[in-house]
Amino acid sequence: xxxxxxxxxxxxxxxxxxxxxSVPVAAQDIATAEALFERGLAxxxxxxxxxxCKVLAESERIxxxxxxxxxxxxxxxxxxxxxTAVAHFKDYLARLDQETGPAGAVFGAxxxx
Length: 113
Fold this sequence. Notes:
single chain, 113 residues, mainly alpha, 5 helices
């Protein structure tokens, strides 16, 4: 009977153990993404668009944040990659819609389109 209970608890114990291992990794990923974002922004501001855009994209891949596509779009536009910039701006606006409601309503209220 005790062995039966132990065997049933193995999957639960395994899951709890795996979750506890993943928490520090997630925090490390967030810190890595933040450092990459700062480096990418610095590269962008220094005119190193190719490097900056790639680093910003990696930051977004590791830890997607609502504002990163906007910064990435600005970087891509300054690098001359307009189609890619437009795609990132669309992604940004879609996220803005999800978080705050239609972007058009927000901008329309501000600037009376």
